[in-house]
Structure formats: structure tokens, C-alpha cells
Design a protein that fits this description.
Elements: E1 4-9, H1 20-28, E2 31-34, E3 51-54, H2 66-78, E4 82-87, H3 97-106, E5 110-114, H4 119-126, E6 139-144, H5 158-161, E7 166-171, H6 177-186, E8 194-199, E9 207-212, H7 213-220, E10 229-233
Parallel strand pairs: 1-4, 1-5, 2-3, 2-4, 6-7
Antiparallel strand pairs: 7-10, 8-9, 8-10
Helix pairs in contact: 2-3, 6-7
């Protein structure tokens, strides 16, 4: 009999931010395929007999290939196991969920998607700022700062990203933010626009750095990231 795949959102890393449904699926799983950023204390909710398989991807480090992850999902599902695909943050945000869904659907396996706390929301909460502000930030946009090559995407919508009335959250953008900021400023975004660097959100080493777009770009230029981070900029609350 075919198994069942639960795509579970692990949140930013703090196990207290898991949903009740996420905890339930982890406890009942036969196999857990987990991302690097969804490991640690979160895996403590897995049952004692669960097989734990690391399939995470990290920039600049050896990582599991997506085809291999897809194959593992299908293999364990067809073997009749209850599989949890544990994805960091919210599974639907920059997590390659669609590719894994396609593989599972093609194999005819039953599945579900369990949403979770995105790291953007967790970062804003940690900094005690709202992602929206009445009259000044009436739009929120989540963007990636890196394409498949690790460079700044070539199809950047500069008008949208330089909108001073939007709160923008940049995922995977530490390496490219200096270039991104250069484009933002050339498209009219003031250099003194508030910016926040949120590092290792939801983990014990979490750190928040308040700056400006120009100041943060200068700080990050030529540096190698030590921890995953988000960058927020726009009309952020002080």
C-alpha cells in the first residue's frame, strides 16, 4: 500500500513556533527528510523510530540534488511509509515545493501541505516591527536575492523593489545586497531608507542589525555570510 507525504513547515528554527499539526505529523512519521535549517531541536518532535535523512541545501556547501530529494520522497512513499518532508520557514516560500509536489503527484501519492511561520514574520516579530504600517507600508513583497547561480537575478523589477511605500524582504541576499542596493538607489530609493539584517532567525545565535540600505550595503560588500539571514527594508518602524 502506498504511503503518504506530509510537506511540513518547520518555521524559522524555534520549535515553539511549530504548529500543532506539524508536531503531530512529526510524531507519527516513519521517515523525515529535513532541511539544514529545519534540524536541531525541531527534530526532537520526531518519534523514536523515525528514520531521519538530511537533504538540506546551503549556498557554498555540498548539498543534496533536487532530483535525489524527489526520488527519496517517491521511494519511501511507494514503500508505504508516512513521510514528512520538513522544510524550513513556510514550505511554500522559496522552498522548491512545486518540484517536489510534481514528483509526488506523478507517482500518485497522497499528500498534504502544512503551512508554518515564515522567517520573514519571525524576523519582524523579533525586531518588534510590523511588516505593514498604516499609510506608509501598505504592501509587503518577498523576493530572492540570488538566482540558481548564486548571483543577483537578471530580471529584477526595479520599480517594484524601489517602491518607498513597500516593505521588502530579501531572502538569500547577503552576497548580492551591495549590487541590489546600487540598483535600488539608481532607481530612486533613498539611501537612508531603514534596513534590518536578521541573522539566524529563530536560533540561539539570532542577531538583529538595524541600519539603512546604503549602510547595510557597505557593511555586506565583499563579506562571506556565516549564517543564513534575511534583509528587510522600507518604512520599518523604529
Amino acid at each position: 500500500m502506498a504511503g503518504f507525504i506530509s510537506f511540513v513547515s518547520a518555521g524559522p528554527g524555534d520549535p515553539d513556533l511549530l504548529t500543532l499539526k506539524a508536531v503531530d505529523r512529526l510524531r507519527r512519521a516513519d521517515v523525515v527528510l529535513f532541511d539544514d535549517l529545519a534540524s536541531g531541536p525541531v527534530l526532537g518532535h520526531a518519534g523514536p523510530g523515525a528514520e531521519l535523512i538530511a537533504v538540506g541545501k546551503r549556498a557554498g556547501r555540498p548539498s543534496a540534488k533536487q532530483d535525489h530529494v524527489n526520488a527519496l520522497l517517491v521511494e519511501h512513499g511507494l514503500a508505504g511509509r508516512r513521510v514528512v518532508r520538513l522544510k524550513s520557514g513556510d514550505a511554500g516560500i522559496f522552498g522548491r515545493l512545486e518540484e517536489e509536489l510534481e514528483a509526488v503527484n506523478a507517482a500518485g501519492l497522497g499528500h498534504e501541505i502544512i503551512p508554518g511561520v515564515t522567517s520573514a514574520s519571525a524576523a519582524a516579530a523579533a525586531a518588534e516591527i510590523p511588516l505593514t504600517r498604516r499609510m506608509t507600508a501598505r504592501r509587503v513583497q518577498f523576493v530572492t536575492g540570488a538566482d540558481v547561480t548564486g548571483g543577483l537575478p537578471g530580471d529584477v523589477n526595479w520599480a517594484a523593489l524601489a517602491d518607498p511605500a513597500a516593505t521588502t524582504v530579501v531572502f538569500m541576499g547577503q552576497r548580492t545586497f551591495a549590487r541590489l542596493a546600487e540598483g535600488l538607489l539608481s532607481h530612486g530609493l533613498p539611501g537612508d531608507t531603514p534596513a534590518l539584517l536578521a541573522t539566524a532567525v529563530g536560533h540561539p545565535e539570532q542577531a538583529l542589525l538595524r541600519s539603512t540600505v546604503a549602510g547595510l550595503a557597505q557593511r555586506l560588500a565583499g563579506t562571506a555570510p556565516e549564517h543564513p539571514a534575511l534583509i528587510l527594508y522600507g518604512p520599518l518602524a523604529d
